[in-house]
Amino acid sequence: MRKRQVLKHSIAIVSMLVCVCCFFIVSVTVFKLPEAPRKDRQMGFYPTIRSRKVSLQDFNLGKFGEMMIDMLPQDLAFTVFVPSEDAFKRDLRLSVSDSLKPDKFNDTYAIVTRILGFSAVPRILSSANVQSGELVNYDSLSGFPLYVSKDIDGMLVVNRIRSEIVDVRKKEIVVHVMDGVIMDAEFEQSVLAEDDTEED
Ligand SMILES: *[C@@H]1O[C@H](CO)[C@@H](O)[C@H](O)[C@H]1NC(C)=O
Question: What fold characterizes domain 54-199?
Answer without folding.
Answer: FAS1 domain (2.30.180)
